[in-house]
Amino acid sequence: MDRGILPTLLGYQLRRAQQRMFQHFAASVGDLGVTPGQVGLLVMIGANPGVSQAALAKALGVERASLGETVGRLVAGGHLQRRPSPVDRRSHALHLTAGGEALLERLLPRIREHETAAAARLSAQERSTLRRLLRRLAGDE
Amino acid sequence: MDRGILPTLLGYQLRRAQQRMFQHFAASVGDLGVTPGQVGLLVMIGANPGVSQAALAKALGVERASLGETVGRLVAGGHLQRRPSPVDRRSHALHLTAGGEALLERLLPRIREHETAAAARLSAQERSTLRRLLRRLAGDE
DNA sequence: TATTGTTATACTCTATAACTATA
DNA sequence: TATAGTTATAGAGTATAACAATA
């Protein structure tokens, strides 16, 4: 099957690599019932208890409404709480529930295994190079 | 904002980089009305006229039903045709329409500009290294 | 029996626009 | 005026399961 110019396109290679990582994640961590994006949210809120949805949306580069949807799913799943902000009555302070913290504890070792297995084709140095180039590309600083 | 362990995860950096590329694509090529995934399909079909949906799904690593949805959108948009296969009456032979070919001609230079601009943070050599590592990670041969 | 394509159903992610409550 | 959050609406992408037609 001829892929034409696709292999020369960074965007295509990124999509393919991410698709592969997602499928590996689903097969190896999916039984815990969360997606990679939801894991990101849980980690961020765990590291910044009380953060607002607007601050989180800005940090993750998505719209407030989009983030609200994802937060809503995690609230419905019992992993997150929206508490009233002590300083701004428009705002919600996001916190992990006890269940959310327990889930995160179970997730972390599973995710490390998944990462190692999914990137087994690359050496430790190559993985490090790849992370560095991706971070520069994303402008995540 | 503390990102916790996220920056150490390849999956997170991939998601962020892809999100950035997607947003840049949408802003710079989106006026032509196609998504990156649809471009991939148009390029593949342009390079392999008459290919079947099943063969395409396998090459792209998605389910037949999922690919059928995307093909259906491009057919509805007038960019693709499903013709009867000359050798297997179960199968469709996919072809670009004249409009699809014209669209692809307009897309290619725009995509090259988009790729260059979106990856401006990286040197030519770094972009090449990144493509190579991503291809290895994706197992795309 | 196996494969090709379709349909039905469902879920995640994402966005824009309009709304409210509050700052 | 501007911001935080929600809701309504929409579209893309993905998947599984069941089905008809064909191999």
Characterize the structure shown.
The structure is a homodimer of 141-residue chains. Chain A is mostly helical. The first copy, chain A, is 63% helix and 7% strand. Chain A has six helices and two strands, in the order H-H-H-H-E-E-H-H. Chain A has helices spanning 10-29, 36-47, 53-60, 64-76, 98-118, 124-138, and strands spanning 80-84, 92-96. In chain A, strands 1-2 form a two-stranded antiparallel ribbon. In chain A, a hairpin with a 7-residue loop joins strand 1 (80-84) and strand 2. In chain A, helix 1 (10-29) packs across helix 5, helix 2 packs across helix 5 and helix 3 (53-60) crosses helix 4. The longest helix of chain A has 21 residues, at 98-118. The radius of gyration of chain A is 17 Å and the shape is globular. The N and C termini of chain A lie far apart (39 Å). The model of chain A has no long low-confidence stretch (mean pLDDT 95). Chains A and B meet through helix 1, helix 2, helix 5 and helix 6 of A and helix 1, helix 2, helix 3, helix 5 and helix 6 of B. Chain A binds a DNA duplex (23 and 23 nucleotides) through residues 22, 35, 37-38, 52-54, 62-66, 68-70, 72-73, 82, 85, 88-92.
Considering the chains and any ligands shown, give keywords for the structure.
homodimer, DNA-binding, 6 helices, 141 residues, 2 strands, mainly alpha
